[in-house]
Amino acid sequence: MESKRDILNNLLVVLFNNILTIEEKALKTGDFKNLTISELHVIEAVGLEKAPNMTRIANRLGVTVGTLTIAVNNLVRKGYVQRVRDENDRRVVKIGLTDTGEAAYRHHEAFHDDMIEFVIRTLSDGETGVLVEALSKITLYFEEKYGEGIQ
Question: Where are the chain's structural domains?
Fold first, then answer.
């Protein structure tokens, strides 16, 4: 008989891997086949906010500005984001989504909305409350154990 430890480990690993795999497959079915899941997460971090700067986006993703620069270069080349110089300080580079980037953002948002809608529709209010509490504790553990900047 499997122990609770084995069951939990299996459930967490399978769930995490399934979400990433399904998310990537959902992305590949749309008009955004040239995006990687990492690039999509950069688009998500830029969001619909009016032109956040590179440091802010890097902090959201838990990566260095140098690492983000490589991803942004690719996304600019693919037409999903654009660089905008700050009018008050030309040294500051802000990133904004293009129309294509906004469409990709909304496509990804729809995937997440569908996933959350399923959970809400399937679980009772009590089960949802327990799930939220449990996932909050797990998230807090990872933040405390592995530091800020993880998502």
Answer: 34-146
